[in-house]
Write a structure and sequence with these properties.
Layout lengths: L2 E7 L8 H14 L2 E7 L5 E7 L3 H11 L5 E5 L9
Antiparallel strand pairs: 1-3, 1-4, 2-3
């Protein structure tokens, strides 16, 4: 399945509890996307999230349904660590 990096910019610092995370997972499942990993910027105003999804539209639909920004969505290829060594 294709991989995507999503940059999300937040007006306020992100504060997501377990209940909120569970709701987002339900939305993602319904949209056919799978969250893999996230990085949070030092100021807690941006996240960079790695997802598996069938296409960009599924990513944007899941974000819309969850009420989350998806400011930049980029399809990426998988990089193997041995490619750099």
């Amino acid at each position: 399945m294709p991989l995507f990096i999503i940059e999300r910019r937040f007006a306020d610092a992100l504060d997501l509890d377990a209940e909120g995370a569970a709701l987002i997972k339900q939305v993602n499942d319904a949209a056919g996307v799978n969250w893999l990993y996230s990085f949070l910027s030092a100021d807690r105003r941006k996240t960079y999230c790695l997802y598996e999804a069938p296409n960009v539209e599924a990513i944007r639909e899941a974000a819309r349904l969850a009420g989350l920004p998806a400011d930049v969505v980029v399809e990426v290829s998988q990089v193997r660590p041995e490619a750099f060594g």
